[in-house]
Design goal:
This protein has 211 residues and is α/β, with parallel strands linked by helices. The protein has five helices and nine strands; from the N terminus they run H-E-E-H-E-E-H-E-E-E-E-H-H-E. The chain has one domain: Collagenase (Catalytic Domain) (3-Layer(aba) Sandwich), CATH 3.40.390. Strand 2, helix 2 and strand 3 form a beta-alpha-beta unit.
Length: 211
Amino acid sequence: MAGLLLIAILSLPSAAFGQDDEIRVVERRELPARHTGSRALRLSLHVFRGGRWSPEEAEAAVLEAAGLLRQCGVALSRAELRVVQAPGRFRVYFTPVSRELLARLPAPRPAVFFVDDTRNDPAFDAEAIGRENAAGRPELADTVWVAHGARDLPQALAHELVHLLSDSGSHSEAPGNLMRAETSPGATRLTPAQCERLRARGQANGLLGVN
């Protein structure tokens, strides 16, 4: 009975609390874990109540993207999908607004946010903010932002996770490489050197554990 009561309370709209500007997690889901790999990746995933992403869409994208990282010995050991109640402006990725969101919403890192759109210029379908490019926006460090309708979604998400874990904005010109500047369904491979940097930097920055 207590569990049912908790679910009912979490399901109430924010207006019931008299706080229209409130930001809070109203639902949590555990995704199936993948344990085959020398490095363990734990992700916190975020969709917005009333936004364009369904939890099921986000879950499917993350599981497929995680599959592409297995070639580097990285296993998705835990992923919590969190449904966030927040004013509509936070559903769009825009650096000043998204910094406010992260200042007000504790989010274990690395974190992925599935947003309706982006207002940043240039407007990328997906963007990773690693340590290297977070100096002017420290609240966003170790996060990935994915806009609804992103092209080649699993590849785009895996591409950004590699940027994040490697703490590098480098791209590759090699045919079929996941880190080509333009994603495509057939571009899925990573080189041994790319995998080595991903594992080393990811572990050094506390974003990957050792299985």
